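Worked example

This section walks through a single chain of length 199. The input is the sequence exactly as stored; nothing has been trimmed or padded.
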Amino acid sequence: MKRVLLMIPMLAMAFLLYRCGAFVGTLDIKQNPHPKMRYDITITIEGAPGPFDAVGGFMQYEVANKQCVPLTGGPMNPMRIPPLAHPPIDFKRVSDNVYTGTVYADYFLDEDYFGEGMCHWSLMSATARLKVMNRTFAPYLLPDELFSQKPVTAYFTRDEYLHNNVGYSSTGERDRSVFPSDQQQGLFSITLVAKEHLP
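Given that input, the structure is written out below as tokens.
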């Protein structure tokens, strides 16, 4: 999977604000008071050139069934834009290179927001955010990776860490072999693994 540099220009940011704010800002979204689908996520950092200034993260939720959302965009360009929400993940430091946090796959209650039928919230990803100066390292778990509880490792170059004056985010590379041979010794890794929390 190609490394993604999440450099968001103003136009894209405006779209994101529209997409997130057009509905979510006016919706009465209720958090599930008794979530049952809890997964504890462990972050393990190997070989980083130094510490991180902050470690956090977020869950990305989206209404999965667009049919519950009214059409927007007018008759020439009708579209259904599903609401998004990004509840935070609070990661706590366990040791110099290990952090743990909790994700819920049933974080929100499903509701009929628009009179078009029940809207069903779905967890789309769980993303960690490790910051050093202006640089953010953002490995993630997709739903099948979360539920299968298998570790997922993302690789980054040490140069990305050391040259941190440029503000951008990188999701890393999941296939170490994509890096040329002269960079192999200059990599570090961030591994995410989820474990279902059983009562």
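What to look for: Residues 10-23 form the longest helix (14 residues).
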